[in-house]
Write a structure and sequence with these properties.
Oligomer: single chain
Order of helices and strands: HHHHHEEH
Radius of gyration: 32 Å
Largest sheet: 2 strands, antiparallel
Distance between the termini: 60 Å
CATH class of the domain at 6-111: Mainly Alpha
Helix content: 25-40%
CATH topology of the domain at 6-111: Arc Repressor Mutant, subunit A
Strand order of the largest sheet: 1-2
Structural class: mainly alpha
Shape: elongated
């Protein structure tokens, strides 16, 4: 999972991000949310709740609108994860804020590791392929291909080697 750029699933959301939505979720937050569910609006809401400031219901609707044009609340998956004991809900006034619980940490260790906050190294440049020279096919010369001023069966003078 570490080679996957989880933020790439949300390109249109990140391009339309505004200050009213708070800080953008990090690659690590998105990666952790994707361990518990597939990429989409529900996982994006979980990733937003993992931010230090959490996420408000209005912010979830605005981000959902950026995702697919439909401003719908996305709390089902988040509530199920809290009920299952995977996450703990933190006390942030007016917002949903989550932290990973011990049971969730066990789940992550068995089902995949989320990305870290380290910057991703650029892939090494690939070496250019060197193509082999192609074999030249001998084309038979006919009388019609040779100009009239050149005799057809004339001996060819050898050129001195350089």
């Amino acid at each position: 999972m570490s080679n996957v750029k989880h933020i790439s699933y949300y390109t249109n959301v990140m391009q339309g991000w505004s200050k009213a939505l708070g800080s953008k979720p990090t690659e690590a937050q998105l990666s952790l949310a994707h361990v518990f569910g597939r990429p989409g609006k529900q996982s994006l809401a979980v990733a937003l709740a993992l931010r230090s400031e959490g996420v408000t219901g209005n912010q979830i609707k605005q981000v959902s609108s950026l995702f697919d044009g439909k401003a719908t609340p996305q709390l089902n998956h988040m509530r199920d994860l809290i009920a299952a004991g995977m996450f703990k809900r933190e006390a942030v006034p007016g917002a949903y804020a989550l932290t990973l619980a011990a049971k969730g940490q066990t789940f992550v260790s068995h089902h995949g590791k989320p990305a870290t906050e380290k910057p991703v190294a650029e892939p090494k440049a690939k070496k250019a392929k060197v193509s082999k020279p192609r074999k030249v096919k001998a084309v038979p010369v006919t009388d019609s291909d040779v100009p009239a001023s050149v005799p057809v069966n004339a001996p060819v003078a050898e050129q001195p080697a350089a």
